[in-house]
């Protein structure tokens, strides 16, 4: 009975003044970057790096995340459409069947991850910082940011789970009246636990630069492999597939994480040496 489930139908905005609206997803996205900035700044101070670099690093990471996530969605999940409408990849509106301002609908976490890695490579080259060291610092906050993003998805009633008979099922009224797994909430909780675990590992068991990066992507994408089994497919072409696109894209990340952890399992360098290119 629906009385045993959670009825979920929030509006899409926390504040709507007509001329200005603060959407939940935008707020969660902002909180993700603010929380990440605070944690990474503490890491920079800890390793005696110029805090002034944080402004440039933020710009690189934000652009890398947004561009990578957008391209990832367009290429991995909806290539057939965007191949015919390439301008809509970079423009926040559609031309067909009519002109309509839509914003950027569709971001893929796998693409965002690749975008971040590429932006950090460019940043490390310009500012002469060790790429593995940078990857560790950003990897630490990736699950924290992921928690906020999934909470934004929950508020938008998107990336929903499959039907469930459990009492904690959510009825997403914007979608249908079927009790479903709150997959977004599962992911948010899992990412918070991963952040706490990795943070403790970094404090208590220092490893060579790169180990934390490998650990984070291994944990995140292992969980992603599992959670996809109770999530609805994101694109129609995934119907009937043994593994959906999210799981297929997770496999190389898992293998990459394991490989990096193995190669970087040795003793750490002195912090001041690890941070700079030699």
From TrEMBL:
<comment type="similarity">
    <text>Belongs to the Lgt family.</text>
</comment>
<feature type="transmembrane region" description="Helical">
    <location>
        <begin position="239"/>
        <end position="263"/>
    </location>
</feature>
<feature type="binding site">
    <location>
        <position position="150"/>
    </location>
    <ligand>
        <name>a 1,2-diacyl-sn-glycero-3-phospho-(1'-sn-glycerol)</name>
    </ligand>
</feature>
<keyword id="KW-0812">Transmembrane</keyword>
<feature type="transmembrane region" description="Helical">
    <location>
        <begin position="103"/>
        <end position="123"/>
    </location>
</feature>
<dbReference type="GO" id="GO:0005886">
    <property type="term" value="C:plasma membrane"/>
</dbReference>
<comment type="function">
    <text>Catalyzes the transfer of the diacylglyceryl group from phosphatidylglycerol to the sulfhydryl group of the N-terminal cysteine of a prolipoprotein, the first step in the formation of mature lipoproteins.</text>
</comment>
<dbReference type="Pfam" id="PF01790">
    <property type="entry name" value="LGT"/>
</dbReference>
<protein>
    <recommendedName>
        <fullName>Phosphatidylglycerol--prolipoprotein diacylglyceryl transferase</fullName>
        <ecNumber>2.5.1.145</ecNumber>
    </recommendedName>
</protein>
<keyword id="KW-0449">Lipoprotein</keyword>
<keyword id="KW-0472">Membrane</keyword>
<feature type="transmembrane region" description="Helical">
    <location>
        <begin position="208"/>
        <end position="227"/>
    </location>
</feature>
<keyword id="KW-1133">Transmembrane helix</keyword>
<feature type="transmembrane region" description="Helical">
    <location>
        <begin position="183"/>
        <end position="201"/>
    </location>
</feature>
<dbReference type="GO" id="GO:0042158">
    <property type="term" value="P:lipoprotein biosynthetic process"/>
</dbReference>
<comment type="pathway">
    <text>Protein modification; lipoprotein biosynthesis (diacylglyceryl transfer).</text>
</comment>
<dbReference type="GO" id="GO:0008961">
    <property type="term" value="F:phosphatidylglycerol-prolipoprotein diacylglyceryl transferase activity"/>
</dbReference>
<feature type="transmembrane region" description="Helical">
    <location>
        <begin position="60"/>
        <end position="83"/>
    </location>
</feature>
<dbReference type="InterPro" id="IPR001640">
    <property type="entry name" value="Lgt"/>
</dbReference>
<keyword id="KW-0808">Transferase</keyword>
<keyword id="KW-1003">Cell membrane</keyword>
<feature type="transmembrane region" description="Helical">
    <location>
        <begin position="130"/>
        <end position="149"/>
    </location>
</feature>
<feature type="transmembrane region" description="Helical">
    <location>
        <begin position="20"/>
        <end position="40"/>
    </location>
</feature>
């Amino acid at each position: 009975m629906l009385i045993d489930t959670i009825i979920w139908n929030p509006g899409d905005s926390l504040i709507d003044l007509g001329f200005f609206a603060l959407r939940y997803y935008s707020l969660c996205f902002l909180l993700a970057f603010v929380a990440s900035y605070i944690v990474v700044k503490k890491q920079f101070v800890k390793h005696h790096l110029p805090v002034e670099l944080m402004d440039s690093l933020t710009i690189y990471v934000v652009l890398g995340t947004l561009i990578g996530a957008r391209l990832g969605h367009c290429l991995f999940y909806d290539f057939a459409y965007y191949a015919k409408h390439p301008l809509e990849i970079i423009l926040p509106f559609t031309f067909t069947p009519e002109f309509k301002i839509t914003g950027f609908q569709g971001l893929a976490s796998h693409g965002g991850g690749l975008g971040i890695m590429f932006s950090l490579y460019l940043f490390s080259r310009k500012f002469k910082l060790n790429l593995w060291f940078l990857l560790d610092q950003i990897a630490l906050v990736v699950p924290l940011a992921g928690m906020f993003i999934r909470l934004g998805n929950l508020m938008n009633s998107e990336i929903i789970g499959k039907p469930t008979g459990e009492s904690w099922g959510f009825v997403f009224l914007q979608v249908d009246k079927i009790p479903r797994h709150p997959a977004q909430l599962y992911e948010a909780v899992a990412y918070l636990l991963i952040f706490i675990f990795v943070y403790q590992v970094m404090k208590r068991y220092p490893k060579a630069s790169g180990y934390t990066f490998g650990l984070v992507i291994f944990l995140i994408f292992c969980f992603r492999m599992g959670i996809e089994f109770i999530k609805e497919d994101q694109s129609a072409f995934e119907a009937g597939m043994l593994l959906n696109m999210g799981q297929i894209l997770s496999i190389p990340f898992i293998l990459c994480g394991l490989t990096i952890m193995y190669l970087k399992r040795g003793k750490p360098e002195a912090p001041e040496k690890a941070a700079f290119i030699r």
